[in-house]
Amino acid sequence: MRCFVRSALALAFTALAATPIQAAVVAAESGVTTHSPCPSFCGGSGSQFASDFGGGEGFDYSYSAIANGDGNARAEAAVSGPGIPQISLRVEAFSSANSRASANASAMRKYLYSGPTSNIVLSIGLDGALVDGSQPPDAYLRANVMAVVARDLDFYGDYGTFAYEIIPGTPDANIVDEVELDFYRLGLVGLGTQTVNSQLAFTLEDGDSLYLWASLVGYGTRGGSADAFNTLGMAFTEGNLAGIAAAPVPLPAPLVLLGSALLAGLTRRRRALSRA
After folding, report:
1. 242-245 contacts, C-beta under 8 A, 24 or more apart
2. pTM of the full structure
């Protein structure tokens, strides 16, 4: 019996290592790059490119980092508690004089709502510092946060793809509110660390499933930098918060198969013993 259990465990966990958690419940993704040369644009003859990417669907945490002669960058995405799991994102990118460094982090979480119709408020805060390079605009820092009501929704970390392809391609998906925080458009350049606050406000009804999606992108070119490693954070602050719960993350298929295999083995073992 012990040999059977060991074999079943080995088979299931081998399959588990190659099978991601079911999509559209939780996701965290990060990526960083450096690129040179950047005289008037990045690339051309003798171009150098380096990158580090991680996470995706099924991950609740991802971290990427890079450091070389063209600059340094790091990005972190997390979906964590206590209480209702919240999204937090961090990025920073510092470029050298003839290069670009960029960092991006994105995440998504599915929640289930039960109870009377309620007006919900999600408060959002971003701390960041933006410094231009030698050819403005050579620095960029932008956050996007979106609330979507949908039964099921695929994840994609890029705002354009998610907003203009994924959501329109999902029949029951409805954006109930979204916000963009763009430091350059707000004139927050060369002023040291600045704090920008905003919120999403939307209505949930009994039985709704809510997706929160967020991204944070920063880059610096030709000596420019974007530093938002003090976090893009958010929290539910108003409404029937007791009715909001994180949707459970389904067990990966190998674990379901493991349980079935162990149960079948135990049943056969009992039958063999009863006949002995």
Report:
1. 242/115, 243/113, 243/114, 243/115, 243/116, 243/118, 243/204, 244/84, 244/111, 244/112, 244/113, 244/120, 244/204, 244/210, 245/84, 245/111, 245/112, 245/113, 245/114
2. 0.82
